Amino acid sequence: MVTYVSILRGINVGGHRLIKMVDLKILLSNLGFSNVQTYIQSGNIIFQFTETSEKVLEDIICSAIKKQYNFDVPTMVKGIAEMKNLHANNPFLKDETKDISYMHITYLERIPDHEKFDSLANSNYKDDEYILVGKNIYIYCPNGYGNTKLHNSFFESKLNVNATTRNWKTTRELIAMAEKIEISC
Asked: Are residues 25 and 79 in the same domain?
């Protein structure tokens, strides 16, 4: 069994696309996923499944949610090794003057078109910074994520790709939870 982290986009926000985490846990367990755990209400799931591609798992989860709730939820799935790699390679962690409470990571469904991504440099984002690494964007928002232009909808519209963002605390907690599952099995 391989440990995975699934990150759902846009559930339980503003009273829309509501899914209780206990129900989501049952849904995935019924699909044959094991050791299913959730973290907070924004759609963070840790589970184990036989080794397969993340895309296959994304499709399974999306289809099950569509069938159960009748709405689409963009879903990103990462293996624990990839999550650890994302954590270890956060370029903002190398700068000791940066406060981790202002760090975020935007997970993209695929590597964006480089021309579209490069065109983002033509705008001013105040003190906010972003760095693309593969299909993930590290974000530093010293004035808070709620005050940045660099949010999911911005990246989705500019890059024509599904995106979902988690703060650094959540990212670290998801990794810690996944590691606990691996140790216990």
From this structure: yes
